[in-house]
From TrEMBL:
Domain of life: Bacteria
Protein name according to UniProt: Lrp/AsnC family transcriptional regulator
Coiled-coil stretches noted in the UniProt entry, renumbered to this chain: none
UniProt entry keywords in alphabetical sequence: DNA-binding, Transcription, Transcription regulation
Length: 159
């Protein structure tokens, strides 16, 4: 179900994306709503799937996973059942952080994290073994991190 977002909803989404630990009272103060009205909106946004999850953002280097890899992957055949199998495999691998089904020379672009190149190589060897529909992949090793995030701009310029 897709929610129709008003200016209060968009403002709430902007706030909780920046700090998911704020109370409904603190959010309400910022948007001009009561704690109960803010709580109702937060519950609806979660129930409607607009807020997909509330998570902690972990510093990968501090957690021992400092290496990122950007992977362009091609498949042999784009049959729905084969793509679904590959997507399930990606979803089951914590090291695969993001998966994009894309246009262009690659079929998928992945963001992968690993403690080192050997761990990455082992993951990709397992992917090839488990998914014979993968034709090939190319890897870019991230040398420096300029920006990392999942923030979705939802507020308009006038807000």
């Amino acid at each position: 179900m897709r929610s129709k977002l008003d200016r209060f909803d968009r403002h709430i989404l902007d706030i909780v994306q920046r700090d998911g630990e704020l109370t409904a009272d603190a959010i309400g103060d910022q948007v001009g709503l009561s704690e109960s009205a803010t709580s109702r909106r937060l519950r609806r946004l979660k129930a409607d799937g607009v807020i997909a999850a509330t998570v902690a953002v972990v510093d990968p280097a501090a957690a021992g996973r400092p290496t990122f890899f950007i992977v362009a992957l091609e498949v042999e055949r784009e049959r729905p059942e084969l793509l679904a199998r590959l997507r399930r495999w990606f979803a089951g691998e914590d090291q695969v952080q993001q998966v994009y089904y894309v246009t262009g020379s690659a079929d998928f672009v992945l963001i992968v994290t690993a403690p080192d190149v050997d761990s990455y190589d082992a993951l990709m060897a397992r992917m090839i073994a488990d998914n014979p529909n993968v034709r090939r992949f190319t890897t870019n090793v991230v040398l420096g991190l300029g920006k990392r995030g999942l923030f979705v701009p939802v507020r308009g310029d006038a807000e």
